[in-house]
Structure formats: C-alpha cells, structure tokens
Amino acid sequence: MSYASLLVHVQDTPSQPVFTDTAAALAARWMARVTGLHTHVPTYNSYIATGDYPVAPSPTMIAEDETAARDRDAEMARTFAKRVEARHVAEHDWCYRSADLAGLQTAELIANEARAHDLVVIGRPAPTTHDHTSADTPAIVAQASSRPVLVLPAHDTPFTELGRHIVLGWNASREAQRAISGALPLLQDAESVNLVVIDDSHALVSPHGEEPGADIALYLARHGVHVEVSRLESGGRSVADLLCSHITETGADTLCMGAYGHSRLREFILGGTTYEMLRRLPVPTLVGA
Fold first, then answer.
1. CATH number of 165-288: 1.20.1260.100, 2.30.180.10, 3.40.718.10, 3.40.50.620?
2. 5-153, which class in CATH?
3. What pTM was computed for the model?
4. What is the radius of gyration, based on Cα positions, of the chain?
C-alpha cells in the first residue's frame, strides 16, 4: 500500500524549502505525484468577514493585491518545480487558490483541495507576513477534508527519513482510527511502531477494554505492521506531556494521532492534547480526524 498523490501547502517563508524537499522525498519514496498548493488570503479578507473593515476595499486595491499575489505565486511555482525535480520527482503540478472576497480562510482553501489527494503536508514555520496558518490549521484541514495531514516542524534540514520509528497515540477514538488508516503506508514501511495507550486512573470507564491496545495491534498486524504496545499511567500528567516524554525516550521520529476528540472550541478554551501537540510539535506529526 502506498500514497499515490501528495498535496503540500507552499508558503512564502524561510522554512518552505525544507518542507518542499521533505514532501518531494516522500513522493519519491512512493513514486507518487506531488502538487504544490499556494493559498492567498487578502489582508482585508478577515475584516470583511466580521464587518470591521472601515472602508470597503476599492476595485483598484483588490486588483493590486491580486496582481502582487500572482507575481509571488509565479516565482514560488518555479522554485517548487526546481526543488521537486531535484529530488527526482517527475510527476508534479501546481495550484493557486485565493480567498478573494468569499471570506474563506487558509484551512478551508487547503481542505477543498485536499479531498482529491491521499496525504496533505503542511509545514509549521515561525510566523511571518505571508504565513496565514495557525497551530490548529492542520487539524482543521484533517477534519474538513477527511484526509490525513502530516505536519512538519521548522527544521534546518529535510525530514527525508521520517516514518522509520513511529509512535502511535491510541485512545480508542474514531479520530485515532482514522489517523491510523491514513498512516498505513508509513506504518507498513516503518522499522518500528510503538503504540501508546495512556490509562487515566481517575476515569470512571476505560475505552480500552481488558487488554488495552490489543485489538488495534491485531488490526495493524493484519496489515503487515508489527507493533509494540506501551501502556502508560497518566499519574496526573497531561497526555501531551506524556507523549512528548515518550517520544524523546524512544527516539521516535514521527508521531501519529487523532485530532480533536473534543470540540475545537473546548480544546481552545480548556486546553487539549491536539492543540498542545501541534503547538509543541516535537517531531513530524500525522493527524487524522
């Protein structure tokens, strides 16, 4: 099993060459087609959506903004093609999408394109003028598109060997199952897969059954994935803390987990594993929802 089509979100940031090279290396691994997606959200767009823009943008302002975006897009497309071809990826293309005056934001633009691909790659660079993503953008895309999203942290060199040693965060939820299904090509190629079950001693009912992790380990074995199960006690620590510590201790290079077992609003207000892991992003992380 492999991915046939990858979509990589391309931003005008210093970290983008590493993200593009990583996506190209993955495409070469599976002999997949890779599509670069550049999204443009005009600076006035969010103000229009909320009615806070003091004066409606003039046709001239709109035209100038779009012309500048198109010029930047053309240069980014040329750079993208050169980088993926340098990684021996023959099949590639480019897509430009603008929110215009529709009120759409970056996550929606990516999700609309993601539905026609097997895997979405999104980098998390340090914020810049042309970065319109946030920490939870990848999880929103996964939810809206029903596609797995691989999130890459800022790094000096491409993650060409990611997916060799994978930690799976398992909580018996629909979202975790979708993440595993979306990650199967990575899991089948991995040298080691460590499935982590975190038991909360204060929970009234455990979703994990008599032998936590055994059922999903059997499912993965039927797909040719050998899994080692680790059962961790929370001991009052957050799931995010435990996962980060476990990743460090095991030397994992990739995390796979479900996104938003609770509502996004609840996680934003009260804090939650998805938001915390995507904010910390200790290693490349594949999320499903």
1. 3.40.50.620
2. alpha beta
3. 0.89
4. 20
